[in-house]
């Protein structure tokens, strides 16, 4: 019986993509309060009513309630890296901790990229610039309070506004301030409830963007209210602060750059009547301002460290001529910048705009900024007054550690750090991935190393002579023991002492220190764990970390305090690691460092599930929120986690009859999960949701508490469509189908010509459709779903020439006979399509790389830019992803970021006329100054880009400022932008443009607010005229060398790289060859120190399949034959011999650059043996086998000399053992046959040919 099985294993073209972007692609399902509703909420608090802000549910409010008690920093026994640094100097980050939309703050979400600021040891206040009164996400407040940092919120009053508190005020600011400052019986009615509310949520400071105008009486009223709030806060045992930008003075007028003096002393307050805790100076201060401010503070009985020298890190970076004045004056430091994201985070695009590139760069940027250019607070460069935010510039920065000492709150046992930064590429527990999904939840951030990185040599020194011989330490997302990151120490060193944590931990002899670690190369750790005691921080007690049992596997080593020589009452002041005599490839990863009292019972309360909200259900995942409580609360009560014996909560999920899954963790009393994995099936929708409280030691905890099983509705069908092959030829049948296997049948499937819109093929109703299209071209897929809603995937189908190759096809495999004997030839022949050809080469662009074309190739307003492109994925920043840009790093902001023109793939955007779906294309030119938004009239409205799909784009511009966009040959936008200008013209009047430098043309590459393109480009063209409709269609097909039109100035097919360059095939010639570059030394808005650096290009990739090129599509066959051996083969045949009898299957796989096809034919031939030969002599071979049956071994006797191979086979034909040797005439060879009792086949090959197979029986 012949059975045939056919498999097609092809590259699927799917529009489903995972975006590595700064803002999540999933909805924001946690609602926050609106600032204008604050008066109503305050009124409820005044009356003692416990209710959430208007529009905020109980479950959502939990994400704003801090559950981590604010901790005090070490005072007694404190020490510092550098003597002479003022311990009391403070630092404020008056910046956002947010995403580009200023909506997500520090809320949990399911993307990797996010502001996970981690150098808390150097700051005292986080001003939380985008958080309105009186709201701050617990993600920020929890981690800040854990590190002894106070958290603020901001009333962001626009510059120059006039504000008068009144119930009839025209703005919210006046109305809210009016209500707040109401008095009854000469007492501020709202002072106490305001502070009580702030304590409940965990907010310390109210901030003012105080550059408004008002009256002196209002300023007196506000000052008195602030004083009253401070006094109420003392009664409530809460740290209350006012953060005031030093703009609006006591007279109600704006008065910048005057320092602290008589004009603002009332809003500052004296020692008995503190009004403002952080008075933030405008940015033009100098030595005189600082010294005068110190004197004024002393006169008022206040600490002058409550006055902050302000730095505008958006507009000026770290440029400040008077840095040194801070050494001579007791003044604190404040950073502002900017309105949506911290500029430190936003500018972390030095090495690209992918999420991992930003995160790695952001870590380094923080460390250079605080620890100085050597990345070590023990060795700081000289003061540098001219640094920007680029990491290249920061490598010469003196570091904030010049003025600040690192502080710590680690004073309580247990102490545990797993070096988790609060986000990850996956979520891990005990070193194993438990949820394979990107995530961000800042409140899970561990205690980070106090110093990053204080590393010294064997003499406990660090200097310019030894800095390069010390080991390197970093936080890495490549691995994790728990969460998403761990510590890595690497590099060759004779001796390096890595000082990690400043602590003040009182121990008992049986307390246990532990380190969890793994090695990457070699089992030896080359490492010791050390501690130092209070007042003896240069005297180290060490113990070696034992070698690991297996490289790459986590190991935990524990040591009792007594074994380190510690006695009861000793206080550990420092913890760290020593590495010595390490090889060049050394890497030690540390997943946990801890001190525990294993005998302690934390009485961890078992939480109670209050509510589960299932948000969405897909065929393979669901999203949900869950609220729980470890203690019942009422009235004004708020419970900290340490009161219920809890560090954090683990969040679990289980689909009925499936394994339990740990998905995430949080310190909040509510959890938010997106993409909880599910097995598809309409009968598999019952799920339950669980939570477990984990004790402060990270080991003990409650049992998992489960909800009842709930049915997850299938309410979010996915419209993603996949094709069964990546390239399609004329009249070739192909299938398009929904990726979602639960989606209801579509009402209709259509293919439309992308240029004309004509329907060329139509499929039946169903979840898939088969098509065949006779004509080469680009076609849009239009699917009407079960609800009658149409979706369009532009350019989904390309019908391409046979000459560019195709996916192989196998239609049949035949044998030249149905039976044959062992050792005899069987010939297999297959029929099908090889699919060989020559395809176009593309150029791979991976952010931060971009393709650069010398800008002089195109001058004036008359031009066209064209290219084919296929995006791998999108990593949209707030303004989208760069596709084409013409700009120069030599210009100043904003021209260095936008320039002459920019063509951008946009995120979803609400325009004036319509809502624009994600991935539409916009085209802007110099003269358009509303950079945050596209020009709606010049967008590909309704035409968006699908990742994995080739699309063609042309933008044109003429002398009359008519701008057009062509998408896959169809004109989709045409509009006159009267203000359109050219850079060379604007340079005459705008000094921000360097007229001596050319603005080059770039394909890809990121920028501020714009991500870099990732994917493949092909057929790049720059024309000196606007193309007509017909010329656009011809441009899509490309041009042969020698037939290039004169107006096509730059033309790149990428078929051949000449070193680092690509030949310009356009009429402008080789002076305008293109290259792949990156921008080095850029940091944020300032590119003055940046440069373009050539990169090795990769054109060994398939380009657009509709153009013939030089990429050879060669098909390779692979036969799978069991015990068969191919003796010869041709293009479509294989001659095979078999060693053992039986019915044989054959499998053939054909594979080329476009894909592969596989086909199996079962029982295609039956192989038989000759008559039984047991204890017989073969005349031809002079060969005998004995004894038979046998017990352990058989003897083989040879009559002729020769080279023999003896194969022992099982009855299924599987090869069990094989021996080859030279045998002499008459020689007897003993062959031991291992294995169970039963029948075996002894196959004899002489000189490589099968002569005989003998059955033998083991008894």
What is the share of helical residues?
under 10%
Q: How is the biggest beta sheet arranged?
A: 10 strands, antiparallel
* Rg for CA atoms: 36 Å
Span of the ends, CA to CA: 34 Å
Net shape: globular
Q: Which range does the strand content fall in? A: 35-45%
Helix/strand class: mainly beta
Q: Could you name the ranges where pLDDT drops below 50 across 5 or more consecutive residues? A: 1-20, 1171-1181
Strand tally:
81
Give the rounded overall mean pLDDT. Answer: 93
Count of helices?
Answer: 14
List the helices and strands and how they pair.
Layout: E1 3-10, H1 38-46, H2 58-61, E2 91-94, E3 125-126, H3 138-146, E4 150-155, H4 172-180, E5 183-184, E6 187-188, H5 191-201, E7 205-208, H6 216-236, E8 241-245, H7 265-268, E9 269-270, E10 273-274, E11 278-280, H8 287-299, E12 307-312, H9 325-328, E13 332-336, H10 343-346, H11 355-371, H12 391-394, E14 415-417, E15 423-424, E16 427-429, E17 432-435, E18 439-440, E19 454-456, E20 472-476, E21 486-490, E22 493-506, E23 512-519, E24 527-533, E25 536-544, E26 555-560, E27 571-582, E28 587-596, E29 608-617, E30 621-629, E31 648-655, E32 661-666, E33 670-677, E34 686-694, E35 705-706, E36 710-711, E37 721-723, E38 734-738, E39 748-753, E40 759-763, E41 768-771, E42 777-784, E43 790-799, E44 809-815, E45 819-821, E46 826-833, E47 837-839, E48 841-845, E49 850-853, E50 863-873, E51 881-887, E52 901-905, E53 909-910, E54 915-916, E55 920-925, E56 939-944, E57 950-957, E58 962-967, E59 970-976, H13 983-986, E60 1000-1004, E61 1014-1023, H14 1029-1037, E62 1048-1052, E63 1057-1058, E64 1061-1062, E65 1074-1080, E66 1091-1095, ...
Parallel strand pairs: 2-3, 2-13, 3-4, 4-7, 7-8, 8-11, 11-12, 12-13, 45-73
Antiparallel strand pairs: 1-73, 5-6, 9-10, 14-28, 15-18, 16-17, 19-22, 20-21, 21-28, 22-27, 23-26, 23-28, 24-25, 24-27, 29-30, 30-33, 31-32, 31-34, 34-35, 34-36, 37-38, 38-41, 39-40, 39-42, 42-43, 44-46, 46-71, 47-68, 48-61, 48-67, 49-60, 49-65, 50-57, 50-61, 51-52, 51-60, 52-55, 53-54, 55-56, 57-58, ...
Helix pairs in contact: 5-6
């Amino acid at each position: 019986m012949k059975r045939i099985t056919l498999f097609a294993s092809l590259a699927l073209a799917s529009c489903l993509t995972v975006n590595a972007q700064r803002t999540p692609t999933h909805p924001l399902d946690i609602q926050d309060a609106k600032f204008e509703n604050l008066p109503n909420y305050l009124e409820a608090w005044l009356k003692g009513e416990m209710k959430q802000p208007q529009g905020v549910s109980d479950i959502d409010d939990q994400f704003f309630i801090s559950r981590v008690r604010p901790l005090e920093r070490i005072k007694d026994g404190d020490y510092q890296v550098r003597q002479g640094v003022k311990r009391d100097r403070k630092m404020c980050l008056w910046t956002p901790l947010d995403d580009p939309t200023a909506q997500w703050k520090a809320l949990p979400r399911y993307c990797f990229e996010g502001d996970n600021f981690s150098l808390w040891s150097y700051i005292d206040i986080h001003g939380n610039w985008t958080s309105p009164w009186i709201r701050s996400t617990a993600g920020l407040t929890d981690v800040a309070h854990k590190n002894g940092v106070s958290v603020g919120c901001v009333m962001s009053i626009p510059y120059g506004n006039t504000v008068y508190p009144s119930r009839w005020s025209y703005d919210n600011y006046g109305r809210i301030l009016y209500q707040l400052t109401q008095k009854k019986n000469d007492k501020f009615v709202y002072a106490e409830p305001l502070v009580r509310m702030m304590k409940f949520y965990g907010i310390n400071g109210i901030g003012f963007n105080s550059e408004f105008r008002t009256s002196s009486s209002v300023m007196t009223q506000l000052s008195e209210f602030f004083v009253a709030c401070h006094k109420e806060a003392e009664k409530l045992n809460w740290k209350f602060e006012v953060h005031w930008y030093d703009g609006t003075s006591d007279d109600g007028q704006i008065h910048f750059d005057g320092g602290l003096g008589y004009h603002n002393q009332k809003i500052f307050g004296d020692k008995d009547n503190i009004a403002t805790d952080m008075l933030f100076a405008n940015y033009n201060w100098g030595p005189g301002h600082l010294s005068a401010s110190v004197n004024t503070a002393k006169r008022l009985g206040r600490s002058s460290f409550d006055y902050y020298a302000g730095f505008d890190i958006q507009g000026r970076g770290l440029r400040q001529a008077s840095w040194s004045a801070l050494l001579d004056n007791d003044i604190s430091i404040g950073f502002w910048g900017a309105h949506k994201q911290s500029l430190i985070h936003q500018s972390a695009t030095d090495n690209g705009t992918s999420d991992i590139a930003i995160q790695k760069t952001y870590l380094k940027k923080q460390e250079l900024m605080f620890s100085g250019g050597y990345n070590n607070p023990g060795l700081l460069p000289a003061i540098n007054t001219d640094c920007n935010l680029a990491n290249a510039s920061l490598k010469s920065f003196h570091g904030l550690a010049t003025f600040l000492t690192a502080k710590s709150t680690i004073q309580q046992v247990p102490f545990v750090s797993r070096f988790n930064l609060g986000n990850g590429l996956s979520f891990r527990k005990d070193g194993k991935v438990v949820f394979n999904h990107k995530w961000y939840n800042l409140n899970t951030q561990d205690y980070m190393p106090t110093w990053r990185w204080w590393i010294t040599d064997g003499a406990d020194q660090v200097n310019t002579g030894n800095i390069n011989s010390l080991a390197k330490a970093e936080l890495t997302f490549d691995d994790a023991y728990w969460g998403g990151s761990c510590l890595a120490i690497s590099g060759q060193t004779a001796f390096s002492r890595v000082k990690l944590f400043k602590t003040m931990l009182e121990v008992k002899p049986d307390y246990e220190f532990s380190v969890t670690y793994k090695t990457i190369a070699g089992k030896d750790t080359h490492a010791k764990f050390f501690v130092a005691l209070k007042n003896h921080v240069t005297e180290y007690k060490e113990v070696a970390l034992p070698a690991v049992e297996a490289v790459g596997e986590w190991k935990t080593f524990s040591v009792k305090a007594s074994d380190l020589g510690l006695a009861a009452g000793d206080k550990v002041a420092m913890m760290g690691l020593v590495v010595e005599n390490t090889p060049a490839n050394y890497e030690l990863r540390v997943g946990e460092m801890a001190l525990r009292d294993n005998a302690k019972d934390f009485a961890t309360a078992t939480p109670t599930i209050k509510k589960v909200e299932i948000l969405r259900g897909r065929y393979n995942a669901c999203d949900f929120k869950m609220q729980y409580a470890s203690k019942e609360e009422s009235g004004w009560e708020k419970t900290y986690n340490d009161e219920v014996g809890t560090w954090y909560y683990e969040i679990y999920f289980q689909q009925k009859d499936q394994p339990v899954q740990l998905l995430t963790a949080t310190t909040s009393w509510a959890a938010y999960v997106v993409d909880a994995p599910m097995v598809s099936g309409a009968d598999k929708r019952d799920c339950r949701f669980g939570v477990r409280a984990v004790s402060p030691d990270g080991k003990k905890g409650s049992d998992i508490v489960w909800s009842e099983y709930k049915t997850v509705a299938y309410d979010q069908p996915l419209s993603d469509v996949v094709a069964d092959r990546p390239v399609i030829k004329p009249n070739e049948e192909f299938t398009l189908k929904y990726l979602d296997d639960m989606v209801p049948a579509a009402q209709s499937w259509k293919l439309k010509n992308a240029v004309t819109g004509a329907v060329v093929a139509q499929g039946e109703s169903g979840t898939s459709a088969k098509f065949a299209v006779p004509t080469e071209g680009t076609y849009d897929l239009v699917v009407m779903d079960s609800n009658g809603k149409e979706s369009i995937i532009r350019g989904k189908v390309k019908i391409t020439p046979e000459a560019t190759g195709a996916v192989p096809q196998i239609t049949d495999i035949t044998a030249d006979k149905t039976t044959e004997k062992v050792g005899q030839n069987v010939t297999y022949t297959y029929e099908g399509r090889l699919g060989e050809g020559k395809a176009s080469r593309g150029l791979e662009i991976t952010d931060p790389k971009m393709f650069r074309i010398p800008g002089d190739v195109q001058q004036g307003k008359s031009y066209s830019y064209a290219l084919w492109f296929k995006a791998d994925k999108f990593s949209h920043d707030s303004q989208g992803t760069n596709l084409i840009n013409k700009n120069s790093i030599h210009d100043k902001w904003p021209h260095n970021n936008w320039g002459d023109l920019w063509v951008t793939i946009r995120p979803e955007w609400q325009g004036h006329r319509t809502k624009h779906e994600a991935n539409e294309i916009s085209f802007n030119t110099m003269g358009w100054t509303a950079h945050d938004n596209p020009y709606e009239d010049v967008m590909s409205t309704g035409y968006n880009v699908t990742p994995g799909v080739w699309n063609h784009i042309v933008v044109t511009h003429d002398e009359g400022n008519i701008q057009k966009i062509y998408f896959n040959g169809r004109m989709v936008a045409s509009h006159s932008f009267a203000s359109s200008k050219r850079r060379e013209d604007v340079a005459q009047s705008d000094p921000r443009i360097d007229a001596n430098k050319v603005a080059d043309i770039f394909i890809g590459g990121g920028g501020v607010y714009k991500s870099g393109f990732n994917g493949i480009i092909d057929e790049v063209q720059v024309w000196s005229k606007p193309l007509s409709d017909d010329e656009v269609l011809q441009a899509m097909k490309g041009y042969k060398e020698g037939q290039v039109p004169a107006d096509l100035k730059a033309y790149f097919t990428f078929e051949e790289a000449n070193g680092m360059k690509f030949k310009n095939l356009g009429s402008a010639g080789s002076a305008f060859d293109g290259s792949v570059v990156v921008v080095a030394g850029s940091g944020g808005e300032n590119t003055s120190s940046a440069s373009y650096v050539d990169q090795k290009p990769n054109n060994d990739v398939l380009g657009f399949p509709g153009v013939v090129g030089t990429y050879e599509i060669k098909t390779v066959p692979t036969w799978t034959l069991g015990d068969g051996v191919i003796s010869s083969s041709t293009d479509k045949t294989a001659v095979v011999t078999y060693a053992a009898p039986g019915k044989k299957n054959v499998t053939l796989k054909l594979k080329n650059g476009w894909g592969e096809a596989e086909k199996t034919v079962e029982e295609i031939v039956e192989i038989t043996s000759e008559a039984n030969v047991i204890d017989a002599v073969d005349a031809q071979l002079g060969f005998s086998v004995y004894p038979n049956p046998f017990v352990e071994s058989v003897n083989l006797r040879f009559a002729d000399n020769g080279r023999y191979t003896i194969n022992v086979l099982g009855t299924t034909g599987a090869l069990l053992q094989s021996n080859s040797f030279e045998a002499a005439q008459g020689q007897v060879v003993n062959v031991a046959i291992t294995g169970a009792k039963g029948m075996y086949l002894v196959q004899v090959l002489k000189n490589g040919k099968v002569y005989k197979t003998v059955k033998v029986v083991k008894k």
